[in-house]
């Protein structure tokens, strides 16, 4: 029963994040959610790499700031100046931190009687 409750909580969190993103269509070319600020992020990110990298990552504002600062410091990304806040706001809102309770998705260890037999390696042949 506890697992079922956790599953419902997890599904509720996923549904709420999907409903937030569902308010806006997804750009078919970039794959970005077309919410306020998406064009700015699209132009900035696609200047160096595909926006699919953005879609595959999720994090809070601190994560995105650290990632972008790393790009500025080491990858040649220009200073974002006055676009820092709208960029970080968009990324953290629509590609924010996703928490997953891995205890819901891990199976209970098999009993020893149900585990496969250990196979001994073949003995080395004499030379």
Write the layout of secondary structure elements.
Layout: H1 2-22, H2 38-46, H3 52-56, H4 61-74, H5 84-94
Helix pairs in contact: 4-5
What does this 3D model show about the protein?
InterPro entries: Cyt_c-like_dom_sf. Residues 1-21 form the signal peptide. It is a single chain. 47% of the residues lie in helices and 0% in strands. It has 127 residues and is mainly alpha-helical. It has helices at residues 2-22, 38-46, 52-56, 61-74, 84-94. The model has no long low-confidence stretch (mean pLDDT 80). Helix 4 (61-74) packs across helix 5. The chain has five helices and no strands.
Query: What would you call the shape?
Result: elongated
What's the helix count?
A: 5
β-sheet strand percentage: under 5%
Structural class: mainly alpha
Helix proportion range = 40-55%
Identify low-pLDDT runs. none
Rg of Cα set: 22 Å
Query: Quick check: average pLDDT?
Result: 80
Number of strands: 0
Keywords: Signal
Signal peptide: 1-21
Organism: Shewanella scandinavica
Protein name: Cytochrome C
Features:
single chain; 127 residues; mainly alpha; elongated
In short:
This protein is mainly alpha-helical. The protein has helices spanning 2-22, 38-46, 52-56, 61-74, 84-94.
């Amino acid at each position: 029963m506890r697992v079922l409750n956790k599953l419902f909580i997890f599904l509720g969190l996923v549904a709420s994040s999907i409903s937030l993103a569902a308010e806006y269509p997804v750009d078919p070319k970039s794959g970005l959610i077309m919410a306020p600020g998406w064009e700015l992020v699209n132009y900035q990110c696609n200047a160096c790499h595909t926006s699919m990298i953005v879609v595959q990552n999720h994090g809070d504002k601190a994560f995105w700031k650290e990632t972008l600062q790393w790009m500025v410091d080491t990858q040649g990304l220009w200073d974002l100046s006055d676009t820092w806040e709208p960029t970080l706001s968009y990324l953290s809102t629509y590609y924010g931190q996703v928490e997953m309770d891995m205890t819901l998705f891990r199976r209970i260890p098999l009993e020893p009687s149900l585990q496969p037999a250990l196979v001994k390696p073949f003995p080395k042949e004499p030379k």
